[in-house]
Amino acid sequence: MLLTPLFIALVIGYLLGSLPFGYLVARARGVNIFEVGSRNPGATNVRRVCGAGPGNLVFALDALKGAVSALWPLVVNVAPLTQGREIGGQMAVIGLVGALLGHSFSCFTKFRGGKGVATSAGGLVVLLPWATLIAAAVWVISFYATRYVSLASILAAVALAVATFFLGAATLLLILALLIAGFVILRHRSNIVRLLNGTENKFVKKGAAPKS
Predict the structure, then answer these.
(1) How confident is the model at residue 170 (pLDDT cuts 50, 70, 90)?
(2) How many Å apart are CA 20 and CA 85, to the nearest integer?
(3) Cα 128 from chain centroid?
(4) Residue 210 domain-assigned (yes or no)
């Protein structure tokens, strides 16, 4: 019985995460986001190509996917599914993992997707608000100091894991933070190579840009 609600949380999280908001928002403006800029459907590329408004909208919607995936198990009574066992917190974690996988490997876009930063942030605001706030501060400082979105995201991912550890979060949440940090860094592996080679592109507000 325990596996049933966890599986439900995973599936719902995946389907929510798979909603391709970046693709849909850009398509509404006559742009196939998979063919321009970095060819990534994340908020950064949408902002570069379509402007600040669409980019901010995509970030908000992608964050909302993560937040809803993590939040609903905490507010819905799942006791009848578990014969009285309280596993809402576990379902919330699994739901966010599902959303992250769905966002990055969407079944609606031939398993293509973004790098998971916004979706992770939305869910982590629900589960780890203080660690997420610290990570967000690191992102802002890093971005405005370097203008590299990729570097800011990588440093924020590391900050998330470190902050979660020092804030004394529960073991399950620490594991989640480590997994998300590792996943975000892994999804940025090509950016890391370009950063090391000095060929990574700095943020440009609008207009097609090389991969970054």
Answers:
(1) very high
(2) 34
(3) 14
(4) no
